[in-house]
Amino acid sequence: MGSLGVNVPAIIVLGISIVIGLVMVVVFRYASDQKAIHVAKNHLKAHLLALRLFQDQIPVVMRSYGRIMLATGHYLRLAFKPLLFVIVPMTFLIVQLDRYLGSAPVPTGQPFLMTVHMPDSNALNDVSLSLPDGMTTTAPAVHVPSENQVVWRVVAERSGRYVVNVQASDQIFSKQVVVGSGLSRLSPARLRGQLWERFFVSAEPALPQNKLIDAIDVQYPDRSVAFAGFESLLCSLSGCRFSFQEYLGN
Questions:
Q1: CA angle, 198 as apex, 184 and 185 as ends, to 5°?
Q2: Would you give per-residue pLDDT tens digits along the chain (250 residues)?
Q3: Taking the domains of the chain in order of start, what are their residue ranges?
Q4: Which residue, among 163, 177, 114, has the nearest Cα to 142 in the 3D structure?
Q5: What is d(CA 155, CA 21) in angstroms, rounded to the nearest whole number?
Q6: Residues 204, 189: Cα–Cα separation, whole Å
Q7: How many whole angstroms separate alpha carbon 29 and alpha carbon 18?
Q8: pTM
Q9: How far from each other are the two terminal CA atoms of the chain, in whole angstroms?
């Protein structure tokens, strides 16, 4: 909610949806072959009509089914051609929106998890967490050798943007954490390499090349957006990624 009680995320989602809808209509109108689409629709109607008229003639019915499948494929090819013009900018827009709307900042005073992923479980004991002023751990680090992970439960006393340092051996790696409320550009994960995955789930530079740490994750809560009496829980790209990984692991 905004300072005046306005549901800002819902307004942003509604406004962007309307704009995208209008743009898609215009793109579809000028980027598609409307005449060919009209002809393809007529062919489909003709083959469907043949099914009804000659339903007692098996050879005619079988030929009509085959022609319906071919005509449907032709129609879909014509209809989805405009998608080629918008798929790249749409993907970029969705990724950028996810930075702000997919997750919410960590609430002040509420514990959250920080997870370090490592390529070698034998090095889990060599990792430590260095917290800035205003942040403390509420439990000892938990080592998960089967997942090559070290997990800390952390809490922040006040709002702000923090930089948390993770030390592995003699190297230090940082991760940004946002605490508070409102709309902020969030990065739930900082990854080493993995260019395509970083594009979708990380808003921070890649971790320096090393053999100690693969990723540092922050457990941001999913953002809830209410509109017209309905409440929707947005699944961020990173949240969907972690859920899918857990599903595969099970």
A1: 5
A2: 544 445 676 777 778 888 888 888 887 777 777 788 888 888 888 888 888 888 888 888 888 888 888 888 888 888 787 777 788 888 888 888 888 888 899 999 999 999 999 998 888 888 999 999 999 999 999 999 999 999 999 999 999 999 999 998 889 999 999 999 888 889 999 999 888 888 888 889 999 988 899 999 999 998 776 655 555 545 555 555 444 344 334 4
A3: 8-101, 112-249
A4: 114
A5: 41
A6: 8
A7: 17
A8: 0.68
A9: 37
Residue whose entry in the numeric block shows the structure tokens 């857990």: 246
